[in-house]
Amino acid sequence: MFRIAGIAAIVAVILIAMSTYTVDERERVILFSLGEVRKVDLEPGLHLKFPLINNVRFFEARIMTLNIPPDRFLTSEAKNVIVDFYAKWRIDDVGQFFRATRGDERNAEERLAQILRDGMRNEFARYELAEVVAGERLTIMGAVRQEALETARELGVTLVDVRIRRIDLPDEVSESVYDRMRAERQRVAQDFRARGQEEGERIRSRADRDRTVILADAYRESEEIRGVGDARATEILGQAFGADEDFFGFYRSLIAYRNSLSGERSTYVMDPTSDFFRYFKDPSGVNEPQSP
């Protein structure tokens, strides 16, 4: 009796196990009925099925990484580059994915890899080698992803992202590329220097012109001031001459003495009774010198 009960319990557990399945939120599920697709994308949780009639297949719902072996591509100038890139993808329509790939992820990855290689080949053929190396990677990756999106939808997957890890040059190409890059950098440097020299000459020319204008204005102003001063001095001298003619004559004689007798070895040969020495005999300068 106990034996029969034990067997019944075991059979019941087996039937329950065969009649239930659990869907994880990280999974996509297809429920088959006698080999045909019955339901897709079931909600996470516990579900029932008919043993021997229904079977279930589980697929990854998370984003997966497709690592593609490095491959060679030609640029627009027929230069080879070795590109190492990868893609991020996930199953979007599990029913379409099963119909297109029979549910084989490896098959899907192979087809995606071929699609991406073709896209890379087309995009690299549009750019020169210097552009590819210098910074057109984002443009290339965006164009490849956009071009592959429609084909990826036919497989029931979404292409999340495409990234280039690195771009290497074959040995025969590296040296020529470096030479071109050096030449380009030198050309840019020379252009900067030429523009700097041109700007420097412009600044110096402007400074010289401003200097000339400033000096001319200062000279004109100084001449005007000097003219006003000379006029004022002449006016004062005229007034002084008119006020005391004798003092003016005496003052001018003193100036003549200072200018003439200022040298250390000044020698003059002249008549001591000349008019030049009249203030030596008479400080007033009134008496006429007497002839001997």
Verbal overview:
By secondary structure, the chain is α+β, with helices and mostly antiparallel strands. About 55% of the residues lie in helices and about 20% in strands. The protein has eight helices and eight strands; from the N terminus they run H-E-E-E-E-E-E-E-H-H-H-H-E-H-H-H. The strands form three sheets. A three-stranded antiparallel beta sheet has the order 3-2-5, with no helix packed on it. Strands 6-7-8 form a three-stranded antiparallel beta sheet, with helices on one face. Helix 3 crosses helix 5 and helix 6 packs across helix 7. The longest helix has about 70 residues. The protein is rod-shaped and about 175 Å long.
Question: Which descriptors would you attach to this protein?
Answer:
rod-shaped; 292 residues; three-stranded antiparallel β-sheet; Tetrahydropterin Synthase, Chain A; alpha+beta; single chain
Helix and strand arrangement:
Blueprint: H1 2-19, E1 20-23, E2 27-33, E3 36-40, E4 45-48, E5 54-60, E6 64-74, E7 80-91, H2 94-101, H3 105-124, H4 129-134, H5 137-154, E8 157-168, H6 171-243, H7 245-260, H8 278-281
Antiparallel strand pairs: 1-4, 2-3, 2-5, 6-7, 7-8
The CATH C-level name of the domain at 64-169 is Alpha Beta
Distance N terminus to C terminus? 186 Å
Structural class: alpha+beta
Largest sheet: 3 strands, antiparallel
For the record, the CATH architecture of the domain at 64-169 stands as 2-Layer Sandwich
CATH topology of the domain at 64-169: Tetrahydropterin Synthase, Chain A
